[in-house]
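Budget justification, computational time. The allocation requested in the original proposal was used primarily to generate structure tokens for proteins on the priority list. As evidence of use, we reproduce two of the resulting records. The first is shown immediately below.
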Amino acid sequence: MTGTQQTAAAVPSRRFRGWLLDGLSERAARHPGPHATAPSRTEGHPWWRVMCLTGVDYFSTLGYQPGIAALAAGLLSPLATLVLVALTLLGALPVYRRVARESPHGEGSIAMLERLLPWWAGKVFVLVLLGFAATDFMITITLSAADAAAHAVENPVAPGWMHDGNMWITLLLIAALGAVFLKGFREAIGMAVWLVGTYLLLNLVVLATAARHILDDPVVVDDWWDAASAEHASPVAMIAVALLVFPRLALGMSGFETGVAVMPQVRGDATDTEERPAGRVRDTRRLLTTAALVMSGALLVSSLATTLLIPRDEFESGGEANGRALAYLAHRYLGEAFGTVYDLSTIAILWFAGASALAGLLNLVPRYLPRYGMAPEWTRAVRPLVLLFVAIAFTVTILFEADVDAQGGAYATGVLVLMVSASFAVTVSARHRGHRRATAGFGLVTAVLLYTLVVNVIERPDGLRIAALFIVGILVTSFGSRVHRAFELRSGDITLDATAARLIDEAAARGPLRIIANEPDARDEREYREKQDSQCEETPIPDRRHTLFLEVTVDDSSDFAADVTVHGEECHGYRVLRVRGAAVANTIAAVLLHLRDRTGTVPHAYFTWTEGHPLGHLLRFLVFGDGEVAPVAREVLRRAERDPARRPRIHVG
């Protein structure tokens, strides 16, 4: 192949790579995911449009929630749903309104909890929460697509070739969802608005029709009450049973975490700044409140209508209302044509419910894992992540054979763990601010949500087992990536203060920089004199009068990278450069490269061997950021600068 042919063949490859990694950014403060912080007001969306993105997850539960309530609570389904609505409006909504105020850039409760635990404990805690979040969001994608496939297969007018096609229909829906996100996030929000608007309108027609039938034949209410009274001794007993069984209805609160995650997409006010996005916070709280009120009303009415109008045996496995109670009412009272339209709308919104979940994943992964060094840098770009998540969704679907019931426990577990973490985070926040009444209120909500979680885990332990698989997967791959990336430069922007710049320029005027790496201790004249004498004795330095000392202090070795500021100081007649970083060797290497670029000459750095076992030093480097500095610094430089002639020199004595 000629050079021209090779160049021509490389062009499509470069174009594909450019398209795939479009939006890739090295900035730690922002990321290019669909929830990246919008730098200008014009890049956001009105809150009601963003609400539709969360609504495809939240509102779509109407497709199966009434049936779940009927199976869990029987005749007491309306009472259990009333308890769920009370917890939603008086518990979950206040919690997430507070989360929105305290994490206005979409970090959510995970970031609030990250600040509570220092060092590696905080990182591991976040990874565990990310495991539950991945369980929630990933199972949302697969379960919703599987339920959409079930609606398609069970439709009375579905062609015969679709029967028993749950698996391939589910995989096709997941692939189509990924294609939407590969196309662009704006298209996803536009589709969500139409799907949610149509679905809510059709549900309004179905529920209004059901209410009219109940009003025209009020005897069904008397029959329901008589049957409920026959099963339970008193109204107090009914309430007690409803309180016991409502945790099984927890999927009716599944949209709050995503509602906070999409905050950066809310337009807010023109006067909003990154530090004080007051308009974004206000409109996100409006988004959460509106969604909760709409869903609460729909859940109450749908639960009452399905309990009164649908025979109980139809909710059982194989019954016509199993998993599609409102669709049953649509077909029964509004005809097959309207029922089919309702089915199509339900299939569409259940399919696209995965969009809000996928958006949540695309928000969380670039925000945390690359910053921890626990994912490759390409995970800051959207399209590679979309392909990765679609592949995982395919795997989950195949493993669970597109079975909705088999995935329900994991879904509820993921949702409830995130809600418990959010309520706990705002409880701690309120306590730190001295808000006693708020602390007591949020503490009570935390206790109720924790009870709901425990009941779900006891009744469906498979959910915790599935979540554990996601957690173990994230922990293993994250720490594997951290080890793999340990020898990167691991520094952001490097800046010199005025004194450091002067000391460096003065030393560079007399030839190549000669830098002695020093582990700071007493920082007195004796320390610097003995360090310089021993270094000159072990490794001859041509001009010891103009050497610089470089001292690195590790603040938090669990951090992967940080911006570096070099502070200069003249101490006891010695010139000292002091730096704080995430790891000693990596920070030294980054500073040496910066000094080379600033002065135009290759600097020389002088080290002393450290006593100890090499394996022990390696572990100290990985965990504490120090260890045997010289060989690690040399390896970091070798990987960062491939040209030996331009690579800073490392001398060890």
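The second record produced under the same allocation is shown here.
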Amino acid sequence: MINKLLAKLVKLCHELNQQVKKLSKTRYLQRSKTLNFLLSMTVAVIVTSIGITTDWATTETPTITYKASSISNTISSANLRVKNNTKTPTLNYKTSWIGNTIGSGNLRIQNNIEAMYVAPDGTVYTNSHWDEAAMEAGIYKDGKVIAALGDTHGWSRGGGKAVTANSKYVYIAMTQGSRGDTKEDYPPEGTTWYSVRRYDLSGKPAPFPNGRGWDKSMLITSTKSEVTGLATVGSELYVSDFAANQIRVYDTDTMKELRSFTVANPGAITLDPQKNLWIIQSKSGGKPAKILHYSQTGKQLPQQIADIVEPTAIAINHQGKLLIAENGPRQQMLTYEIKDRPVQVSSFGSKSGIYAGVAGEVRDLKLYGLTGVGTDASGNIYINSNGFNKSGTDLRKFSPSGKLMWRSLGLIFVDNADADPKTDGVDLFTKQEHYLMDFSKPAGKQWTYKAYTLNPFKYPQDPRLHTSPDGTFVRRIQGKPFLFLTDMYNSFLQIYRFNPDTDGKVAIPAGMFVGTNGADKPFFTENWPPHQPEQGEWIWRDRNGNGKFEKNEYDRSKDYPHLGGWWVDSKGDVWKALRTEDGIRHYPLQGIDPKGNPIYSYGSMEKQTTPKIFNDLRRIEYFPETDSMFLSGFTVDRPAFGDDAGVAGSEIARFDNWSKGNRTPKWRIVIPYDSTGKREVSTAAISVAGDYVFAVTVKTAEVYVYNAKTGAQVQQLKPGPEVGSESGWIDIPYGIRAFRRSNGEHLVFVEENWKGKVIMYRLAG
């Protein structure tokens, strides 16, 4: 009976569609929302009367049954008629996450701790320039986040790189930008206040007489450069004013300036038991960094420490000894006896840090990118590592004997994961991290931080140190692992190889594609990379295997400057989509050179014409096993409203027998896209894996799942209770990556930089 009713329904839909077409002769009626609404409502009433139900899976909760109220938007390639897909089964799925110790809630591990102060009772106060979820400054205790300092985000505000506290207040460095014409207290247009903001110990702003800002809790110290150091002793607050080469001293209660004295390039500050100051003097030009000694009144004392390569943080321990974060090649915390002439008496952490032993392998005592050190009254040691180029927070507490007591990780920011196909998804990679998965464990507990793949000391020209990649492809080419990275603007594709014998877990720079700079100037306008072509686009290959960009290692060309997307297929071929009529570029793999680098060239590049249905191609994914091409972009039928370069388009189409020249789509599906100019609805990214095509929306971060064979919509995934049923916006063109495991399970990774993690959906096979 139901089958007969469904057949009648399909026939009725077809007849209604034909009537709509007859009416839709004008440009206005072709886009009429009224007609579409009436058609949908008519069909919905019929479907509801039949009583067809659809089971929609929820995340680790009982299945809920809904009445079907609409029909899928799958489009036939022949005449764009509406298909009925209500019989497609739905999928069970669970939500999990990777990269952050805490997966939900407002209090989770912040993005990048750039300064840290440890109180005698073990409370850790932190500060950073930016945290997407407004936790620039946090309070940690016993491995938990207990509070965030409020009002550090939005309204042109940001955090900073200094923090301290006493028994009554917390003081942080922060910035306050202008807000235009407002009655409240903000800087004039074009001016930034570099300030110290005062809070009570619970994290609430603590105003004071003559305080500035809307709540009168800010002390403006400069309009030229940020505060680089903070410390308190007794009733005095010491502030490093870097631009003025001054240490300024304020009363901790009234916040009135008491005095100041000159110190060139002052940075972090700590005070010893004699209440004298130890100040990091930052390196300048050819002058190396030093640690200087001053009295409270500003008299320079004779002691100094000059044998540190890159001191980034200092503190006094419970025994009155000086602790220094050495962020040079040693990657250790160094301890100095300072009663007379400073003498190093010990070091903490493995020498060479994360690069000791198996380079890149994560171990308890292997540090990397130190930004904070300190101890509590019991002698417990606290160290924060940030990695390099803001890789993420790695905050650890050790016992006095050096045993790891707890560790808090916030490793993800504007990043996504992909799976190693050889290990069936057990090994995952982001742009700098390597995770090991155990899928038998509960949500959020499945990942283990296995390795950090960036080595700035051996490979200082690594593109990850000079750019901001965020999209990851993991590929096996001729059995060997490779990492490919692109960025928020699809402007380049970076290539990395691995050699465990020489570099452990580190990803070695191997190659790079960049697009044409439309301004006829070098693609990168800074001093990196060396020897790059003066105009056009280029492919770099590390021919001698040293990880450096050298003069004879570039292949040059010039092409259309506006890129839609990159793809690396399972054979190692690179594909590029340009937003033009002949916008597909295919770079067949030419082999692996003796140093282990994949070979690509403009001489072997193939130009392929974009299928006529597209007028603005955005994403491309080709699968040689089935000779299937999946393309997304804006089409002639559904063009772009304005020019939002970051979205995936209005349709996805599948083409079979692509290499044989077929350009007729097997199916076309309409994906959420902006048709109003308000950008409330649009698709950020797509990914094809196994049985499904996945698409994720920008603002709602909902994942639409389609059958890869038919184009029928199967499911709509939303963040589950494991991650607080919430997600930030999708900011990157590869904000979704999917992988099919051998047991039929699909893993779907979705960028979630708002609260510093990657959301992982697990779809049962």
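A brief technical remark on that second record: The two ends are 31 Å apart (CA to CA).
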